[in-house]
Amino acid sequence: QVQLVESGGGLVQPGGSLRLSCEATGFNLNEYSVGWFRQVPGKEREGVICINKSDGSITYKESPKDSVKGRVTISRDNTKNTMYLEMSNLKPEDTAVYYCAADPQPFISHCIGLLYDYWGRGTQVTVSS
Q: Are 9 and 125 in contact (CB under 8 A)?
């Protein structure tokens, strides 16, 4: 059974850092393109950062209002079949439910969530003092 389970969410102060984990079962995560997404109630889900299986290229959902580029890192530990999202200099507007996703396509441009087939249930991240 294909499953993704996120962990590591919680309350963090503005300017702080956090690492989220996403453990995969039922398939080898390193054979998939993967990504992290987030959603605020009442708003569309948006891509945070993604990495493609084909060439390891990293893509972002570019947002003119609040780019996460430079504040987030995506990585994988193939021995644990787990991927990570590290976030730094967190801001209140980063508050959201964060989801990990995976898809067998070798390349997905612009971290587009609709193109990913497998999703975790999400973990809440709250940035507040």
A: yes
